[in-house]
Amino acid sequence: MAELVAKRILLVDDDETLRKTLAEQLSQNGEYQCLEAGSGAEALAIAKTEKFDAVLLDVGLPDADGREVCQQLRKAQVSVPIIMVTASSGEADTIRGLDSGANDYIAKPFRLGELVARLKAHLRQHALSEDAVLAIGPYTFKPNVKMLIEEKANKKIRLTEKETSILKYLYRAGQKAVGRDTLLGEVWGYNAGVTTHTLETHIYRLRQKIEKDPAKAQILVTDAGGYRLVP
């Protein structure tokens, strides 16, 4: 079975004990990897050099209002989900947080289960959004511009609309193999004139583009009567 790729979460909170505890709890099963910042300035510095999948951002930071930090992150083109964490549950504060560019707002004290559920929901939603930037093998996948980018090799691979749709659907499926008929129906619709041969032809062309050795696929693999992406 393919190894689980941990989602990288930026935790921004000046309460070191809470931050460390939350990082430990989120990292327990390997689903998340946490980056930590104790101030707004530190969070903005990390955002310039690191990639992450979501942000948990405390409102009460020692050097800035978390909502201002949220605005600055958005101005810096950080498009990932941002969940604000606050000691206040007032409606006015919630509105201010959302207006600053946050995706969600959760009040302390919160249950870990609720936080994780919200985090997962926003990560799934972001993966479907037009401005999503997804990781597939050695590539950065940008569905909105139909492109795979391999930064180390300074390589850009242009994709067709169908190739983009295939990768998006397989990415959403995670580690679960998607049957040929299912993938055919999702990408082409149930068009009577389209057969699994059409899908197999597109998979073949995709492998020619993305695999080092298309005959021995390591990224887009055949599995359980269908196809699956390996992280």
Automatic annotation (TrEMBL):
Q: Does the keyword DNA-binding apply?
A: yes
Entry keyword Cytoplasm: no
Q: Which SUPFAM superfamilies match?
A: CheY-like
Record PTM 4-aspartylphosphate, positions in chain: D58
The feature table lists the DNA-binding region at 131-231
Domain Response regulatory residues, every copy: 8-123
Q: What range(s) does the OmpR/PhoB-type domain occupy?
A: 131-231
This protein is called Response regulator transcription factor
Which species expresses this protein natively?
Answer: Dongia sedimenti
Question: Which taxonomic lineage is given here?
Answer: Bacteria, Pseudomonadati, Pseudomonadota, Alphaproteobacteria, Rhodospirillales
